[in-house]
Amino acid sequence: MKPNTQQLNDLAIQVRRDILRMVHAVNSGHPGGSLGCTEFMVALYQAIMDRKEGFDMDGINEDIFFLSNGHISPVFYSVLARSGYFPVSELATFRKLDSRLQGHPTTHEGLPGIRMASGSLGQGLSVAVGAAQTKKLNGDKHLVYSLHGDGELQEGQNWEAIMYASAYKVDNLIATIDVNGKQIDGPTDEVLNMGSIGAKFLAFGWDVVEIQLGNNIEAIIAGMLEAKARTGKGRPVCVLLHTEMGNGVDYMMHTHAWHGKAPNDEQLAKAMEQNQITLGDY
Amino acid sequence: MKKYTNTGNKDTRSGFGAGLTELGQKNENVVALCADLIGSLKMDDFKKNHPERFFQVGIAEANMIGMAAGMTIGGKIPFTGTFANFSTGRVYDQIRQSVAYSGKNVKICASHAGLTLGEDGATHQILEDIGLMKMLPGMTVINTCDYNQTKAATLAIADHDGPVYLRFGRPSVPNFTPENGTFEIGKAVMLNEGTDVTIIATGHLVWEALEAAEALEAKGISAEVINIHTIKPLDEEAILKSVAKTGCVVTAEEHNILGGLGESVARTLALNNPAPQEFVAVNDSFGESGTPDQLMEKYKLNDTAIVEAAEKVIKRK
Fold first, then answer.
1. pTM for this one?
2. Which terminal Cβ of chain A has fewer Cβ within 10 Å, N or C?
3. CATH (domain of B281)
4. Is the same domain home to B149 and B230?
5. Are B252 and B203 in contact (CB under 8 A)?
6. What confidence tens digit (pLDDT) does each residue in A71-80 have?
7. pLDDT band at A265 (very low <50, low <70, confident <90, very high)
């Protein structure tokens, strides 16, 4: 049975605590984008994707997901652990020597739930398109999901993949763009103004679903169900997920400053006050 | 010395095409991707016979490599096809992260490697690809010498679980290895036993090495000729065994002297049994336009150059 909204919100709060504690423990990592995508990742794994028990690399007869913006690994690891892929206690090894939880996600250390290394940006959409093609070849009706940063779309490889997916009708793919409008050096509009991302996807022949309240679980689920309903109709589907970087921690919101910076002890304590334990810390 | 018969000049890329055609019939998990070079890579038959398993990606090599990596998830064995330059240098980070580091079962098949691409010139004549690929952990690097060996290698890599870089070329060259011969990844092929000097060659230089050995024999020099088709993993045992006997070595390859087969051999010798070595390779430069023969002569990548190197290295013993 799928969890209700209250349960999902409780999980999201716990995931936020995980993210903050993980990056604080090693004084490195990327909390901003991780917090911004927390509700999305929780909703995706708990309410949207049709997943099998356990993990096998081939992911046949289940929905699969690729994280292209690998730097938001803290949210990915927390959601994977809390979805049963590996012990929650292992989150304590994040970014430490001999850990399966590398700074950026990798298959190299055999962490269940990860199907592709990411970190060098702009590569995940091609991978997702390839995996979607294999699903079609295998007669597997399940979907491929992917997540990308908006700034990441500045990488040209994305547009090769976007062109391909449209031309060859890869309609078993839902690529979500985390539209938080921020990247390392500042607002995306200032670093390299991309104009309308939605208009670009539409012009390339994709279907586009907008989720304006990208940090609201119910809005995310409604939007993703709509996206799901639009698959199988000859067009790949793009979801524009409008999020707030650093969501859930007041001093991390409305700034790009926390893209790749960990809170200190005092800041962590403040963030913890704003996100009280729900399911229990790792 | 043992004589080798050229059964007729053929291009190595056609060996790849023939191998891929056979794989299409034998292995339903094999899929092929091409970046707008179907004719050049000889992938027409596979496309015709298995249109559902053939993916034309257009002039978009980065996407091709990423897609190939993704296609392995669900059990496919993707073979990508484009020129060597666009198979490696252009997509190095895609190969590094999505294929090598991710440990994906992708076969990167690269034609038109080296100077023998000819008239198109240095933009297309990559001489650094072996180095680029062999530096990637877990990557197998193969450079085949003729049509038959390229076909055999194409079949063999489908059965190997892991990323492979398969390098071949454009021109018609002597076809002299056995038809339907076996191809063992990582295993050197002894072509001629000798006692005075070891010649270790890869790719198009293997035939030149055999020609050189004949010329050396006429001068009273006994040359051992070894075909190293797999640069990584390198058959160190075969190399060390031969050099222990001959005491010196010439390496020959259509590649930059930096990063190629010669350096791998030198490292092996330095660690185990240091011996004089001469390198027949491009001396850290780009290529240029010209016919393949003109270029191989100008850049000293032929039998004459190997004979000269052998005579020189013997004197250094």
1. 0.97
2. N
3. 3.40.50.920
4. no
5. no
6. 999 999 999 9
7. very high
**A221/A34 Cα distance (integer angstroms):** 18
Residue B57: closest C-alpha in chain A: A164
pLDDT category of residue B1 using cuts at 50, 70 and 90: confident
Each residue of B144-154: pLDDT tens digit?
A: 999 999 999 99
Q: What is the ipTM of this complex?
A: 0.97
Is the CB of B75 less than 8 angstroms away from the CB of A58? yes
What does the pLDDT average to over B44-69? Answer: 98
Angstrom distance (rounded) from CA B285 to CA B257: 9
Q: Within 10 Å of residue B66's Cβ, how many Cβ atoms?
A: 35
A103 interface with B at CB cutoff 8 Å: no
In this structure, the answer to whether residues B151 and B19 fall within a common structural domain is: yes
Nearest-neighbour CA in chain B from A259: distance (Å): 22
- How far apart CA A264 and CA A161 sit, in angstroms, is 40
Residue A1, pLDDT > 80, answer: no
Residue B11 DSSP symbol: E
Residue B3 lies in a domain: no
Chain B residues within 8 A of A60 when measuring between CB atoms:
74-75
Report the alpha-carbon distance of residue B237 to residue A101 in Å, rounded.
Answer: 38
* Residue B70 to residue A57, Cβ atoms within 8 A: no
Which of B52, B62, B93 comes nearest A126 by C-beta? B62
Mean pLDDT rounded to a whole number for chain A:
98
Q: Which residues of B are catalytic?
A: 61
CB of A60 less than 8 A from some CB of B: yes
pLDDT bracket for residue A11 (50, 70, 90): very high
Q: Give the gap in angstroms from C-alpha A245 to the nearest C-alpha of chain B.
A: 26
Same domain, B31 and B166: yes
Q: Considering only the beta carbons, identify the residue of B31, B93, B98 that sits closest to A116.
A: B98
Find out whether the peptide bond into A31 is cis, omega within 30 degrees of 0.
no
The first and second tokens of residue B108, run together, are 């990167």
Report the CATH number that the domain containing residue B14 is assigned in CATH.
Answer: 3.40.50.970
The DSSP bridge pattern shows strands B77-83 and B107-111 to be parallel
Instruction: Give the residue from A236, A234, A256, A235 showing the smallest Cα distance to A245.
Output: A256
Place B167 in a pLDDT band, splitting at 50, 70 and 90.
Answer: very high
Chain B: closest CA distance from residue A61 (Å): 10
Phi/psi for A175 (5° steps) reads -100, 120
**Residues facing residue B32 across a β-bridge:** B54, B79
Q: What is the CA radius of gyration of chain A?
A: 17
Answer yes or no: do A126 and B101 touch at CB < 8 A: no
The position carrying tokens 């080296």 is: B114
pLDDT in tens, A20-63: 999 999 999 999 999 999 999 999 999 999 999 999 999 999 99
Choose among B251, B238, B239, B196: nearest CA to B221.
B196
Quick one: closest CA in A to B74, which residue?
Answer: A58
Query: In terms of residue numbers, what domain contains B145?
Result: 10-173
Tally of domains within chain B:
2
Q: What residue type is B243 in one-letter code? A: V
CA separation for the pair B125, B28 (Å, rounded): 34
Q: What is the mean pLDDT of residues A247-273?
A: 97
Residue of B nearest to A144 (CA): B70
